Amino acid sequence: MRRFILISSTLIIIAATFIFSLVTKRDDGKKDYAIAVHGGAGYFDEKTPPEVVKLYEDALSAALDKGKKMLEEGTAAIDVAEAVVRMLEDDSLFNAGRGAVLNSEGVAELDASIMDGATKKAGAVAGVKIIKNPVTAARMIMDETKHLLLVAEGAEKFAVSKGLETVPNSYFVTWSRERDLRKGTVGVVVLDKKGNLAAATSTGGMGGKMPGRVGDSPIIGAGNYADNKTCAVSCTGWGEKFIVNGVAISVAHLMEYRNLSLEEAVNYVFKNNLKEKDGGLIALDKNGNAVMKFNTKSMFRGYVSSDGAKEVKIWP
Ligand code: ASP
User: Fold this and answer.
1) Domain of 135: which CATH number?
2) pTM to 2 decimals?
């Protein structure tokens, strides 16, 4: 009898502990992993044919699926961010890698950056014309040099020395660019199973820009930022505005120094630093909660987490 009581009370304690852990897990709202992507802000309006919108939605949905699979397998946030941006760079629908918009001389000049929230290390390239996947060049600068940002020929020489794939500039110029200039920058923010955050952003910049112009996407703290303490952010829009306002790092610093939630911090920056039609951003906090906000008509964006919630949207 004593033995029976002992065994049954032990079982009751184990069951109670299990149920309690389930309840507390649900309560703290922390996701095992999460990923958000954007495909640019402000390029589409009500006149955009639904079948065109669908093309973009499908591409972002496939990017989320790829990221989710890698995260489920335990891949690090920084590797997921790079792989997903590479996929979008290869897709000519977007203004990044193949399909990038051209400068005023008809040349594609690409900018990209990546940041690891665990180490606060980052890498970036600007004004590159022959590197097939600028985000990977950014990653190599982060991993293999003591610098952060390399530009133009210097960046290209480094990428070639590391065996990265190069292409003629004409590779980036696609039929869809000539027929349709409404394309978006791409960006990804990731939280992995170990609790590490990462952000990556890639773009051809603003169509018709002056040769040599650099936007916010390769400027760490402006268009891209990640810090495990607070959040990961990737921006899109009128780059100059994001640079002068240090938009991405402002969100992180409002969380760190003013103790705001991610949503409060993003709202603060939009209200105080950005004007109507400047652009948008996607961000994840360290619990995997996403904020995807913009003040343009549209922003292609998507989010999926370990909770199973997946959304892909363009309109507000
Ligand atoms: N922010 C990018 C730039 O200014 C452009 C964009 O997001 O569409 O280069």
Assistant:
1) 3.60.20.30
2) 0.91
